[in-house]
Amino acid sequence: KTTSLALQPVITAELVQGRVHLKCSYSPAEPPVQYSVLWSRLSSPGKREQVHHETTPQTFSHVEMDGANLRLGDTVFCTVTAFRRGTPEQQSLPKDSKGFYAGIKFLPESLEIAEDGKEHVLTVLSTVPIACPGQDGSCKITLHLSTEDLDSQAPGSPDIALSACQVDLLQEPCSGSSCAAATVTVTAVTDFAQDGIRVSSISAEPAAPRDVLWRAYTPRDVKVTVRDLPTGNCYSFTDPHIITFDGWRYDNYKVGTFLLCRSESRAFEVHVRQWDCGGHRSATACNCGVAAQ
Questions:
Q1: Are 212 and 243 contained in the same domain?
Q2: Which InterPro entries does the record cross-reference, listed alphabetically (predicted)?
Q3: Cβ partners under 8 Å of residue 197, min gap 6
């Protein structure tokens, strides 16, 4: 009877003596056997490159992320074959793990938002643990965040704003595929322009990492699609005629300072100052000043 593995191998990340390792775990086969474990990385779409191979009686295998054979940004697989001692030709069918992406992930991986002022939470997480390379006990990676407009026809300023320009990923126990996480909010910029659907990106770059593993690594960008929404307008013009956001029209011929507009949901208001410009013939006022918060 040939042996077989009951379950699919699973890759997790952990620190071993302060260095990042990947661990391939698999179920024991019956009867007790040896295991051939082949580690590989995705070198190009659909193509794998072998990085390590070992034969072991253990139901797990470790490989170090050394920055050379295995680097951040790699998608890693382990393939396990079981065989009986003394009869290596009687092998089980090889079982493949799912691909494990080692590095920084953004969740969600892309965003579709609108110019409606809503905040959207973007989670930045590391699938590998954060090591402490220095003597000061600083176990964190700082990521600088930036935005870019991807419109090739008419590039301009990005249509998105972030709540922070950098986030710190602090060392914490790995749980699921997350070994460190932080959040940032993304909001579409209300630009008062009818510019249709525009695409921007969010980039993250590790800031001066001391750990050699992080030095040549740039995480994948996040694509953010922003849907244009019509912008409301209100007016005060000539002697002053006023048109409100909902199209109501009236006149205000008085002299003084007036509250033209105030938001009930955020700190935003507009004041206008009106001055006599009709002389003796008519009671007419004109806008002579404006202040906006």
A1: no
A2: Dev_Signal_Modulators, Ig_VWDE, VWF_type-D
A3: 225, 226, 227, 228
Contact indicator for 190, 231 with CB cutoff of 8 Å: yes
Please, which pLDDT band fits residue 123 given cuts at 50, 70 and 90?
very high
Q: Are 149 and 69 found together in one domain? A: no
What is the pLDDT confidence band of residue 232, given thresholds at 50, 70 and 90?
confident
Residue 3 inside a domain? The answer is: no
Structurally, how many domains does the chain consist of? 3
CA distances from 147 to 33, 166, 183 (A): 53, 12, 16
Q: 171 and 59 in one domain?
A: no
Backbone dihedral angles phi then psi of residue 48, each to the nearest 5 degrees: -110, 150
Residue owning tokens 């086969």: 29
Domain at 116, CATH number = 2.60.40.10
* CA torsion, ordered 101, 103, 106, 108, to nearest 10 deg: 10
Would you state the structure tokens that stand for residue 6, as one six-digit string? 């009951």
User: pLDDT class for 108, splitting at 50, 70, 90?
Assistant: very high
Question: Residue 172 belongs to what domain range?
Answer: 104-227
What is the pTM (predicted TM-score) of this model? Answer: 0.76
Q: Which amino acid is at 158?
A: P
